[in-house]
Records
---
Amino acid sequence: MSLSPKLSLPSRLPSRRELLWTAAAGVVLASCRGASGPTTAEAASPAGDAAPAVTLRDACRALGIRHGAARDHYIEPEDPMLDRLMARECDVVTPENGGKWGVFQPSEGQYDWRRFDAAVELARSIGATPNWHTIIWQHMGMPPYMKLPAGRQAELGISEGAYFSPDGTLSEENVWSRFTGVVDAVKQRYGDIFYRIDVANEVFFWETAESHPRQQDRFGFRRGMWWVAAGGADKGPEWLDPFFRQVHAAFPKAKLVLNEFGIEIDEGWQQRKRAYLLDWLTGAVRRGVPIHGIGLQSHLIAGKPYDSDGMRKFLRAVDKLGLSVHLTEMDVDETRLPVSWSREEKDRTMALLARRYLADVLNNAKLEELCWWHLRSDLNFIAREHPALRPHPSPYDEQSRPLPLYASVVETLRDKARTGKARSG
């Protein structure tokens, strides 16, 4: 995912309260100090993974929230320091790529479970619970055979090439049998072990300057391969319902969510996406669809205007529906901040953004899970795409030392614990 590279400075200056918090964050990091010497955020030790005095997991557990992170054993195959960090911090483990259809069934009927197995085994070995991310991915993550035949592009009037392939054989006739086949195969291999399952990922439209109205339907859905094959044009918002019902029948213990991104910014398309999401969630609850919550990817963007008022309203509306909130892929993107800013200025801005966002969620919704898109910044996709920047999108650095982002989240959670329990379900 990439948004417009246009630079935008923070929409307002930090308040006096936030400036005071910035100073207080230093106290939290100082709690990571050993008997002598600099904080663990400042000192590189040979082991590199000294535990902070307050873990994110402990701060979450005090509020009844599960804490965790993504891990992909084929991107970072052997990393004992990362394993120790995951063991210390994680109640849940998400296979970053291992649970995606295109990875574990790259050819029809041919399964490769290695990456999925590795994440499940890691979760078991550290006493955590695995998630399944994701079954339906409307835009990406599908093998060529699970795309529409390229010859149908003109017929359907859809210009987005990602939904089509010369090897594509997905159709109205086989979409259901393929879906149920994958669900059954995963159930047979792992059983009903998953804490959360992302039944559908990024099925709502992502507007860009090049977008064409025909790329989305009137309910906000992408007119993608799943929408076409499952009859979205005729069934309207109900085209997703059977998929949730089938997954619930196979995995009755799992929390089923619709996983989405791109709703936090004060821009028109994200505000419209919020409205589309809320409309569908409202209808799904009314229709008795077995959905337990909304998965908010929470890829926050520093330097873009965060829509606190809009998010609070959205979260309260989700709460009124009786749905919980799962922060499924949290990180903070610093690539829109001025290149002239110091590391400290960037870290401070990112920490404040994370604090505002998390406080809004805690105060307006039932937060059940906080899952990072990697605990260590060097393993996050932003770091892979911008290696020269050495960004800090995650709460720990490459030596498993806590960053200011860690301090901001811990202090926000502890603030909530002091003022009142989070409304976890």
---
Amino acid sequence: MTLPPPQGPYGSQPTGGGPQWGGPPPQGPGPQPQYGQPGAPWVQQPNWGAPPPNKGGKGKWILVGLALVAIIAVSIVGTVLVLRPDSSGTSGDTSNTASEFASAKDTGPANIITEDPTCDAWRKVSNELTAVSDAVKWNELDYSVPAAEWTPEQRAAFEKESAALTDVIPSVANLAKQTPHRVMRELYGQVNAYAQAVVDAIPTYSSTDNQIVAASNKMFGALNRVCDAIYFRAAQQTAPLIAAPSPPSVRQAPNEDGEQIPERFLNNSTAGCSDWIDLVEWFDKDKDSIAWGDLDANVKAAEWTPEHKAVMDAVAPVLSRYADDMEHVGRDSGNPIWEDFAIFAAQYMRAYVQGIPTYTPNSVYMSLTSNTLSNGIYWACKAAS
């Protein structure tokens, strides 16, 4: 008997196979058929490519998991607990009296977040975007089509989605000020940065702008997964199993000038991007990673067959290597936000690996968090090239 993950505020979770693991292939925009109820945490994804196509096969879908998160808002799964800001997985003094940012003194390692008081409000933002996306059938559009070739219906969909993104930017900026966690602040900031980039691209949208859309989707998705991991208690159950990472090598104070839209963290091509792209694409092609993606994520460890267990045992060192390599590339980037994101993704993957012996379906949110964010960096790199 297989078990679905616990039900969250957005409806039931899929109980069968399908795209559950949140694997590596970096997804670009394209129609995203919904799995389960609207807002469910897993969506089918087409295979990735350049530009990303709008169709694909089951095996890759499973690895992809939440690689795109259903076009910005369709699968935005916030988690709803209002939590104490003093019990994060991030070390450092988060008290602050001189800055409008609650995270201003969070200078410790970018670690797993076990509680965050902004997740509940983030769900409201997600719902607002989801309502617009559903209404305009945003999930069914072909995002490789340039603006010059849009039908009236496509143009209307892009314009309404643009207006919705513009409307939520101030709310997201407020959440960035209220979270006590530096990485959450940075994620909120990049959600706004890439949302604005999508808005700016729409009047003269080209086929290559789907990379901006993909990066925007991943930033939204990463916030969803962080809050999902809290809501389903995956973060609380696995965070104690791993050591805290080293402090950041590059530090950056929060923006104090009141701007709602910070700069994109990768605005220009960097040498580190080629290393990151190679890393993500290596993981996509690894045979053990592919076999892992073909498993049913809803089966808890106590019910694994010998074959299922063998796949999990084989992939564990691959996932650990992936985590280590992500942290290495991020620390070498010289970019403080990139470094934080890379270490953050690595920690979630390490916690997932350490939790394998006692795996339960909710554990999947740790790998989903890691892979959604790693793919966000991938597409940010593509968009900056």
